[in-house]
Amino acid sequence: MIIKIVLNPKAVLHRATPLTTDKDWALEDRLFVLNVQNIDGIKRIFTERGIPYQDTTTSVVTQDPNNNVIVLTHNLNPVSEQHPAPGARNKLDQQQRRKKIGVLTSGGDASGMNACVRSVVLYGISKGCDVYAVYEGYQGLVDGGDYIRKMDWRSVTGYLSIGGTSIGTARCMAFKTREGRLLAAQNLIKNGIDSLIVCGGDGSLTGADVFRSEWSGLVSELLKADRITKEEASIFKHLTIVGLVGSIDNDMSSTDITIGAVTSLHRICEAVDSVDTTALSHSRAFVIEVMGRHCGWLALMAGIATGADFVFIPERPPSEEDWETAMCKVARRHRELGKRKTIIIVAEGALDRNLKAIKVDHIKDILCDRLGLDTRVTILGHTQRGGSPCAFDRILGTVQSVAAVDAVLASTPDKPSPMIGMNNNQVTTKPLMDAVKLTHEGAAAIESRNFDRALELRDPQFLDELKVFNVATILDDNSIYLPEHQQLTIAILHIGAPAGGMNSATRTAVRYALNRGHTVYGVANGFSGLVRGCFEKLDWMGVDGWTTCGGSLLGTNRAVPGKDVDMGMVAFQLQKYEIQALMLVGGFEAYASLVELDKVRSEYPSLCIPISLIPATVSNNVPGTDFSLGCDTSLNVIVAASDAIVQSAQSSRRRVFVIEVQGGRSGFLAVEGGLAVGACAIYIPEEGIHLPRLQGDVQFLKGLYDTDNPEKSEGRVILRTEGVSNTYTTEVISEILEDEGGARFDSRTAVLGHIQQGNTPSPLDRIRASRLAIHSIEFFEKHTCDALDHAQSICEEAPLELCTNDDSIAVIGLCGVEVHARSIKELLPGTDMKNRKAQEDWWQRDRSLVDILSGRSYFSSIE
Ligand code: ADP
């Protein structure tokens, strides 16, 4: 590698003597500023060759043999306002403008905190900030010294896959005192840090806000006591604080989900799934206590995701004074229906109506004494905190932290401290103290037995999820039966490739439908089974255990009616079995089926029934939903596989893996998977692959490997969507990289293939499936109710033609956290039928982040 800089001799200013090292060279009046990409590579070469330089993270300042000052900067615009070139302003001004961000994790650890730290560091550096990690939470801030360390691009290598927090967390009593906070302020100022990003629970965020509200008083006190200089007091007049909510409890108001909660749910579901098999073998009951402090989110979600028989949560105590009897009734009914196991999930903060704690041992005694069940207690404890973060938390931590850095850069002294949240699948910024206040209000509402208010203060879908659990599980006592004339005959079929959650959706739909008095047929093998009359009545026990099963237990098939199978035969079979509502669970073929059925409805009266589609495909390409069932399971498979591949690549030294992921013509898995695993490049069908792009990637990789520590090379992965190019196959790309990499790096491939459909559906897929199933049955009822009531009023049989309106044939999908039914007529104009996807993809907003966080603009060959 050679760096050759030739200056125009006329422009050269000869200085008699070189500048001494005690001076800031960048403050010279005349500088030669050169825009370069690989600052780290330049530093390494300068160090190797003993060339003196001064380092400002985004720039290197050196002197040429004529003692001219040369600034090499990787800021795209070296003289831009946001990232002023060194020397462009006086020192004080510069220090005020160049953000020095501290990041700390505090309170209880949560998986995904590392994703936050990584993202703050990388995105912060890419924005021209200096980023410092404060180790051991507020304790590190109070103690200062080595607890506050400047981070560089490599400091956070490998962070994404590590659970907990690698910079440590602590509960710090000193920070609760003013003297402690005074020390913390002094340490921040002495390190030049003017902004703090705190990732923690409501306690940590309360502490952060107290700190900011006191800041000017703390600065005055430090100045008065001569602990800081006048200049420092003037530079650090304001402190910027941004909060990220890291907590497994999901107990923070104003955000739908907190970082770490979903990983914790993964651990709980793994444990309950394991307990399930032993319970089944011995016909036992298990009472399982889960964490969550005053919040029942983990318990309720685990209850839905594992098909538990009963859950106890603080926000909704059992309505009966004698809850023991109510619980026993449910457990007994389920046993009488044929269940061999009983699973009760109890939140650690569970209460009865009188605020008396509901304890697992008491429940155990009741089940033993009253029902004679062989009952065991399992307290999951700290296993719930640990382990590698799931895909969701890695992505959540990453995108929220990017927003946190942006909030730091946009902050002004008059703005209240923001908290970064997630609302309706959008990253949001809300006043931190409002969120903390509402969170405390939730706890107070429980204490004052205002349970409705407590529920209101939870995330918006909590109430819906509680209903999902109740109507599908405990209200199997005829209490929600519809009048006989409104009871329907429903058919369910699976279409397309298997996807995690198809069975969960079917199980919940069947259970709820039966609780409403409906009759349900399962149709084997999609429409090709339907035309052959493969209908089988599904009963309560027939779908037992389906929640946790991957694949499609009904059997699935890609046939589309009117194309692959005869439409007349479809209509005939529906008429023969007197089907009054049709529920499809599947991917784009199911969507295409909906389109075909919609076209011919006027020709076939038996198709004039409500028809719903629950999107289920790993590709997440069905219009009308943000997430299809199976895509979260698939992301988690990609994450687990990529972690293993990265480990292999790391061990082999200097190896990049090209991993092929599924997705058809949709780049969803590559983009979101790329964020979750920290891919250094992704290839997606929406962009295609072209030679200049490949050349750029080769240069980028060369730059990365050039600046690696030769003894400690990183394992690197590239994700390529299977359908991106016929020419640049996974093998071809890998061979190009191998050839071009020369002695720097080699390349291998990994094609993940069908394992991406997953074995066991992820908790999120199971929960989404259950919600969509309940809404689907409600959709059927809504669209048949009038016709059935009318027939009843004139003493007639239910008509064959139940509904014809456009709204009655729809995709039941997730719009953020809300469930919406969107008719095929509404969706078609926004559908790209050729590429089998919606014309707009919400996840494209994350695309550029993959490149920014891979260091694409930071590293590149300087050959
Ligand atoms: P979490 O952030 O998970 O809710 P804690 O409630 O234990 O955990 O808070 C973590 C830390 O935040 C505490 O150890 C303390 O250092 C700091 N903290 C909490 N509340 C305050 C407060 N009111 N004032 C100052 N610091 C606080």
TrEMBL record:
The known regulators of its activity are described as:
Allosterically activated by ADP, AMP, or fructose 2,6-bisphosphate, and allosterically inhibited by ATP or citrate.
Q: Which UniProt keywords apply?
A: Allosteric enzyme, ATP-binding, Cytoplasm, Glycolysis, Kinase, Magnesium, Metal-binding, Nucleotide-binding, Transferase
UniProt pathway annotation: Carbohydrate degradation; glycolysis; D-glyceraldehyde 3-phosphate and glycerone phosphate from D-glucose: step 3/4
State where beta-D-fructose 2,6-bisphosphate binds. 558, 617-621, 655, 662-664, 722, 748, 754-757, 836
Q: Which reaction does it catalyse?
A: beta-D-fructose 6-phosphate + ATP = beta-D-fructose 1,6-bisphosphate + ADP + H(+)
Q: Could you give one GO CC term from the UniProt record?
A: 6-phosphofructokinase complex
Q: For the Phosphofructokinase domain, which residue ranges apply?
A: 100-408, 490-779
Subunit structure of this chain's protein: Homotetramer.
NCBIfam families according to UniProt: 6PF1K_euk (TIGR02478)
Q: What's the stated role of this polypeptide?
A: Catalyzes the phosphorylation of D-fructose 6-phosphate to fructose 1,6-bisphosphate by ATP, the first committing step of glycolysis.
Indicate what this protein is called per its UniProt record.
Answer: ATP-dependent 6-phosphofructokinase
